[in-house]
Specification:
heterodimer; A: 136 residues; mainly alpha; 3 helical TM bundles of succinate and fumarate reductases; B: 132 residues; 5 helices; 78% helix; elongated; binds protoporphyrin IX containing FE
Chain lengths: 136, 132
C-alpha cells in the first residue's frame, strides 16, 4: 500500500488548538500532571522528611515549621490534591487495564466519581488535619 | 476489540525502516508500572493515614518512636521503594513522550534514574538509622 493511502485511512488525532477536549481528556492530562507533581515534589518531600529525621530534632522542627508557613501549607494542599486525585484515578486506570469500564458512559461516570471522591477526601483530610492539630 | 489486525492497513513504512516493530523491550516497564500502582493502592492510604494520625502535630521524639515500631519501619521502607520505582517509571514515560532531542532525552533519563535510585537509598538509610 502506498504512503498516501495509508495516510488517508488513518484516524486523525485531535488538533489541539481547535478541538474541544472531552471531560475524559482533561482527566487524562490531570493524571499525568498530578503524577509529575508527585514524582518531583512528593518524592523530594519524602527525601527531606527522612533526612530531617536522621539529622535530628532541630532539623525536623525546622522542616515542620517551614511546612507550617502559608506557602508550606499551600504546597501541602496541592500535594494532597495530587495524591488523592492520582490515587483514585490510578484505580480507574487499573480497571481499564483489566478490560473494564470501556463504555463511554461507564468511563465518564467513573471519572465523575473520581472527581467527587477527590474533593471529599481532600476536604476531609484537611478538616481532620486542622481538627486534630488544633485540638491538641 | 483491536483496531487493526496484523497485516492490515495501518502499518506504516516506519516499521520496516526502523526494523524493530514493537519496541522489543517495554512490556516489563508497563507491567511494573501497574504492579507498583497496585502496591501503592495499599501503601498510599497507609502513608496518608500515618501522616494524619501519627505525624501531624507530633514531636520529633513521638515520630521517632512511631517509626521505631517494626511494622511502621517496614511499611515505610516498602512505601519508599514503591513510590520511587513507580515515580521513576512514570517520569521516564513523560520524558520519552516530550523530549525529542536524542542527547537531551538520554541525559534526562540517566539523570532521573540516578536521582531516584540515590533518593531511595538515602531515604531507606535514614529510616534504618532512625528506627534501629
Ligand atoms: C485518608 C483520609 C482520612 C484520614 C487518614 C483520616 C484520619 C483522621 C484522624 C487521624 C482523625 C483524628 C482522630 C483523633 O482525634 O484521634 C480524624 C478525625 C476526623 N475525621 Fe478523618 N480521616 C480521613 C478522611 C476523612 C473524611 C473524608 C472525613 C469526612 C468527610 C473525615 C471526618 C473526620 C472527622 C469529623 C474527624 C473528627 C472526629 C473526632 O475526633 O471527633 N475524615 N480523621
Ligand atoms: C495509589 C497510588 C497510585 C496509583 C494507583 C497509581 C497508578 C498509576 C497508573 C495506573 C499509572 C499509569 C497511567 C497511564 O498509563 O497513563 C500511573 C502513572 C504515573 N504515576 Fe502513579 N499511581 C499512584 C501513585 C503515584 C505516586 C505516589 C507517584 C509519584 C511519586 C506517581 C507518579 C506517577 C507518574 C509520574 C506517572 C506517569 C504519568 C503518565 O505517564 O502520564 N504515582 N500511576
Amino acid at each position: 500500500m502506498s504512503d498516501q493511502n495509508i495516510k488517508a485511512k488513518r484516524p486523525l488525532s485531535p488538533h489541539l488548538q481547535v478541538y474541544k477536549l472531552p471531560f475524559s481528556a482533561y482527566m487524562s492530562i490531570l493524571h499525568r500532571a498530578s503524577g509529575a507533581f508527585l514524582a518531583l515534589f512528593g518524592v523530594f518531600l519524602i527525601l527531606a522528611f527522612s533526612y530531617s529525621l536522621m539529622c535530628g530534632a532541630e532539623c525536623y522542627d525546622a522542616l515542620v515549621s517551614l511546612l507550617g508557613t502559608l506557602i508550606g501549607r499551600l504546597f501541602l494542599f496541592a500535594l494532597s490534591l495530587c495524591a488523592f486525585y492520582h490515587m483514585f484515578n490510578g484505580f480507574r486506570h487499573l480497571f481499564w487495564d483489566s478490560g473494564k469500564l470501556f463504555k463511554i458512559d461507564n468511563a465518564q461516570n467513573a471519572g465523575a466519581f473520581v472527581m467527587l471522591a477527590t474533593a471529599a477526601a481532600v476536604l476531609g483530610y484537611w478538616y481532620c488535619a486542622y481538627y486534630y492539630v488544633l485540638m491538641k | 476489540m483491536p483496531y487493526y489486525k496484523k497485516g492490515e492497513e495501518f502499518y506504516s513504512p516506519l516499521k520496516s525502516a526502523k526494523n524493530t516493530g514493537s519496541a522489543k523491550s517495554g512490556v516489563h516497564h508497563w507491567i511494573h508500572q501497574r504492579l507498583t500502582a497496585v502496591a501503592l493502592l495499599i501503601l498510599m492510604p497507609w502513608a496518608l493515614w500515618s501522616i494524619h494520625a501519627n505525624i501531624l502535630g507530633a514531636s520529633y521524639d513521638e515520630v521517632v518512636a512511631w517509626l521505631s515500631q517494626p511494622l511502621n519501619a517496614i511499611l515505610s521502607v516498602l512505601f519508599i521503594i514503591t513510590v520511587h520505582y513507580h515515580a521513576l517509571l512514570g517520569v521516564q514515560v513523560i520524558v520519552e513522550d516530550y523530549v525529542h532531542k536524542e542527547w537531551l532525552k538520554i541525559a534526562k533519563l540517566v539523570a532521573q534514574k540516578l536521582f531516584y535510585v540515590a533518593s531511595a537509598i538515602a531515604c531507606i538509610y535514614a529510616v534504618f538509622s532512625v528506627a534501629l
